[in-house]
Design a protein that fits this description.
Strand content: 25-35%
CATH architecture of the largest domain: 4-Layer Sandwich
CATH topology of the largest domain: Metallo-beta-lactamase, Chain A
Shape: globular
Bound molecules: zinc ion
Structural class: alpha/beta
Helix content: 10-25%
Mean pLDDT: 96
CATH superfamily of the largest domain: Ribonuclease Z/Hydroxyacylglutathione hydrolase-like
């Protein structure tokens, strides 16, 4: 099961009852965080989710509303006596930016491993999560992320019996491992059917609508996407500052054929966002407004 929580829904600055946009996901005892603006660790505390098991931190880009909460979060993880390394993923410049922020958090009991992104699309596997980073179009280098938990094909018992594969290998073969026993190698493809649909969550904020979002969010169970502006008269502003409107986000969700969409990264000036949702749902019916702390548990179908 993949457990996701949209910790906050604000863009630009945190407001009372609206923390900055950030996503936390938990899978198999490991946590992953995307973006860490000012106050993200308070939102985490409010939700009751611990910072200590965060093994992976992904950054969309290095505007303050997406990263300025990092030094405090790292100190909290250090205070919790975390010693395992933390993997960080983000656009080029990651190590330089994080090292600069760490001037105020220099002593940590764990190492940080950096993965800097430079290609239009990159794949990384961390703690069983398959992460796809895809470049989007903001006024600084910026990436969206798709997180997938793949699901192996069904174990074919009759086939395993026919091939005479010892029962004590079955469990490991089901997990996708190759097993060698008494000089014989058994591979998963011998006993597994075609891969089944896994779990997929896509997260994308601070961008104009571009094809890479549709391509990489395709068939996601959940798409969390920025809706900086809802008011029709702000469409030009969205273009100028390289953000999106609710309607542009809904068109992407529709074209990518995702199961559900949550809007987030709201402009501080946006109030009564619900008033605009009728029109958003006429474009994409499974559209929802993101809410701070909104959670979803995703299981294999
Ligand atoms: Zn932002
Ligand atoms: Zn930005």
């Amino acid at each position: 099961m993949l457990d996701v929580c949209l910790l906050g829904t604000a863009g630009m600055m945190p407001l009372p009852y609206r923390w900055l946009t950030s996503l936390m996901a938990r899978y198999n005892g490991s946590s992953l965080l995307i973006d860490c603006g000012e106050g993200t660790q308070i939102a985490m505390k409010e939700k009751g989710w611990s910072a200590k098991p965060i093994d992976t931190i992904c950054f969309t880009h290095y505007h303050a509303d997406h990263i300025s909460g990092l030094p405090g979060l790292l100190l909290t993880m250090g205070n919790a006596e975390r010693t395992e390394p933390v993997a960080m993923i983000g656009p080029k410049g990651l190590e330089r930016v994080v090292t600069a922020l760490r001037t105020i958090a220099p002593e940590l009991p764990f190492e940080i491993h950096y993965k800097e992104l430079s290609q239009p699309v990159e794949h990384v596997v961390e703690q069983g999560c398959h992460i796809t980073a895809f470049r989007v179009n903001h006024n600084v280098p910026c990436y969206g992320y798709a997180i997938e938990i793949p699901r192996a094909g069904q174990f074919q018992v009759e086939r395993a019996k026919e091939l005479g594969i010892p029962i004590n290998c079955w469990n490991r073969l089901q997990k996708g491992e190759t097993v060698t026993l008494e000089g014989k190698a058994y591979t998963p493809d011998m006993v597994l059917g075609a891969p089944r649909k896994g779990i997929k969550v896509a997260y994308c904020t601070d961008t104009r609508p571009v094809a890479s979002i549709t391509e990489n969010a395709r068939n996601a169970d959940l798409l969390i996407i920025e809706g900086m502006y809802a008011e029709k008269e702000k469409a030009a502003k969205a273009k100028q500052y390289k953000h999106m409107t609710f309607y542009e986000a809904a068109e992407i969700a529709r074209d990518a054929e995702v199961s559900e969409m949550w809007l987030t990264h709201f402009s501080p000036s946006l109030v009564h966002a619900e008033e605009y949702m009728g029109e958003v749902r006429s474009i994409f019916p499974a559209a929802k407004l993101g809410k701070d702390g909104k959670t979803m548990e995703l299981d294999f179908k």
